Amino acid sequence: MITVNPYLNFNGNTEDAFNFYKSVFGGEFLGLQRFKDTPYGEQMSAKDKEKIMHVALPLGKGNILMGTDVLESMGQKLDVGNNISLTINPESEAEAEKYFNSLAQGGTVMMPLEKAFWGAYFGMLTDKFGIQWMVNYEYNQPKK
């Protein structure tokens, strides 16, 4: 069974926002990664290196609130309406391809589905209705 979770984009204040959400909902971050810790971090400005590449906070039973900072230096721009995506976590590469290709019909692929440095099969798109989606199949999923 796939899971669907919200992914929030912020204009440089992801860490503040997620510390706030943590104070509201409780729990501990499943992970917090800065851009400096990525393979392309060396090429970034000192300011961008410290921004949040990915953070995840579990909410309730099986839900995860995730977020990132938008980087203007990478050509990204935050507008109300593009500051949230829905993330699909399928159970296989084949399922990832099925959902990604179906959602992409009539839409725009922003990042093709491919193996990512964090150990996932990942892609991003905007569907024909303007909804942003991320498909993220984790290769090392715990067995259910």
SSE inventory with pairings:
Elements (H helix, E strand, L loop, with lengths): L2 E8 L3 H12 L5 E4 L11 H4 L2 E8 L3 E7 L14 E6 L3 H12 L3 E9 L3 E7 L5 E7 L6
Parallel strand pairs: 1-4, 5-8
Antiparallel strand pairs: 1-5, 2-3, 3-4, 6-7, 7-8
Report on this model:
The protein is of the alpha+beta class. It folds into 2 domains: 1-71, Signal recognition particle alu RNA binding heterodimer, srp9/1 (2-Layer Sandwich); 81-144, Signal recognition particle alu RNA binding heterodimer, srp9/1 (2-Layer Sandwich). The chain contains 3 helices and 8 strands. The protein has helices at residues 14-25, 46-49, 93-104; strands spanning 3-10, 31-34, 52-59, 63-69, 84-89, 108-116, 120-126, 132-138. It has an 8-stranded mixed beta sheet with strand order 2-3-4-1-5-8-7-6, covered by helices on one side. A hairpin with a 3-residue loop joins strand 6 (108-116) and strand 7. The longest helix is centred in the N-terminal third of the chain and has 12 residues, at 14-25. It is globular, with a radius of gyration of 15 Å. The model has no long low-confidence stretch (mean pLDDT 89).
